[in-house]
Specification:
InterPro entries: Homeodomain-like_sf (IPR009057). By secondary structure, the protein is mostly helical. It has helices at 6-27, 34-41, 45-51, 66-73, 79-89, 93-107, 113-129, 135-152. The chain folds into 2 domains: 6-62, Arc Repressor Mutant, subunit A (Orthogonal Bundle), CATH 1.10.10; 66-152, no CATH class.
């Protein structure tokens, strides 16, 4: 089998990363698997493992992509506007997929440093834009609302 150049390997990685992001944002993180990538690319799983030695490596594709998605949905003009925009964001597929991943990662035995870093960055942004508010409290509130939405959908609980 012919070896590929470093440039071609980098181009392939960029293409596979874009596919990972596309699948994640439309179907959720649980849909990003070796089997799915192999089916979409026509490659063997062993070839994909040359790019992603473990499925944890798939998360590399999301670096720098998550925060802009979240921020595009949020209104930081006031606490109330932020909370309302977060709730509206949960109705949007991409925003919802990101929050689902945050919640899933939070529920794992080992916390995910990237997820922690993302939430801490969001807290920092809230604190910067809403200096009179408790950014941690706001995140606690909206994450709680997110979990309830994931459990019960858009219906309100009694």
């Amino acid at each position: 089998m012919a070896r590929i150049t470093q440039k071609q390997k980098e181009e392939n990685l960029a293409k596979y990363n874009a596919l990972i992001v596309k699948i994640f944002l439309s179907e959720g993180w649980e849909s990003v698997t070796y089997d799915r990538l192999a089916k979409e690319t026509g490659l063997r799983k062993s070839t994909l493992q040359g790019y992603y030695p473990s499925n944890r490596e798939f998360a590399m594709a999301l670096q720098g992509k998550i925060l802009p998605i979240i921020m595009s949905c949020l209104d930081l003009s006031s606490r109330e506007a932020f909370i309302q925009s977060w709730e509206q964001g949960l109705s949007e597929t991409q925003f919802s997929m990101v929050i689902r991943m945050f919640v899933a990662n939070a529920a794992k035995t080992e916390s995910n440093p990237s997820t922690q870093g993302g939430v801490l960055k969001l807290i920092e942004i809230i604190a910067e834009h809403l200096p009179g508010e408790d950014a941690h409290e706001i995140i606690d509130l909206v994450m709680g609302k997110s979990v309830m939405r994931l459990l019960f959908g858009a219906q309100r609980t009694a």
